[in-house]
Amino acid sequence: MGVTWEEINQWKVEQFIDTFGTIYEHSPWVAELVWEKKPFSSWEQLHTATSSIVASADEERQLKLLRNHPDLGARLELTDHSQHEQQRAGIAAMHEAGLEELRQLNREYTGKFGFPFIMAVRHSTADLILNELKRRIQLDREQEFKAALQEVYKIAGFRLQDWNAEQLLTEQG
């Protein structure tokens, strides 16, 4: 039997942050603030609460969260989440010319917007990612800032789903 919502709702802040602090890339402050919104009774409710915390943060904090994300295709030290997500999208298997194009577009994007290109790459392919990057680099900063935050919310939702699947969490309790 998995963990119940009743048990999660009784966790101390440290356990909550240890468990959910990586849902938003290098931003455990989201888990810390959402802990105060307990109790939760569903994944949807928890995801909505985390998204709301980020949405209500000031722009400086949101920008820092965006900047915590790695460039897609970068050969840097990635979090386990990011590494797994990029591998599933086929980025690691891209041919060198495709990787170089992705890196060049990432540099242009970051130069224009001041944060890395962020896309929830689950269910995507390398070609879809490149096409989306080419499309979004044409947006203005305000549009792209909002688009990047929406992608962050999607990523967090996928990561919560993964944790749920790993724990076989029961919705009752």
TrEMBL record:
Protein's UniProt keywords contain S-adenosyl-L-methionine: no
Stretches assigned to the Oxo-4-hydroxy-4-carboxy-5-ureidoimidazoline decarboxylase domain: 9-161
Alphabetized GO MF terms: 2-oxo-4-hydroxy-4-carboxy-5-ureidoimidazoline decarboxylase activity
Key words of the record: Decarboxylase, Lyase, Purine metabolism
Pfam families: OHCU_decarbox
EC number: 4.1.1.97
InterPro entries reported for this sequence: OHCU_decarboxylase (IPR018020), OHCU_decarboxylase-1 (IPR017580), OHCU_decarboxylase_sf (IPR036778)
Pathway the protein acts in: Purine metabolism; urate degradation; (S)-allantoin from urate: step 3/3
Catalysed conversion reaction: 5-hydroxy-2-oxo-4-ureido-2,5-dihydro-1H-imidazole-5-carboxylate + H(+) = (S)-allantoin + CO2
The protein's name in its UniProt record: 2-oxo-4-hydroxy-4-carboxy-5-ureidoimidazoline decarboxylase
Organism from which the protein derives: Paenibacillus lacisoli
Lineage, opening ranks: Bacteria, Bacillati, Bacillota, Bacilli, Bacillales
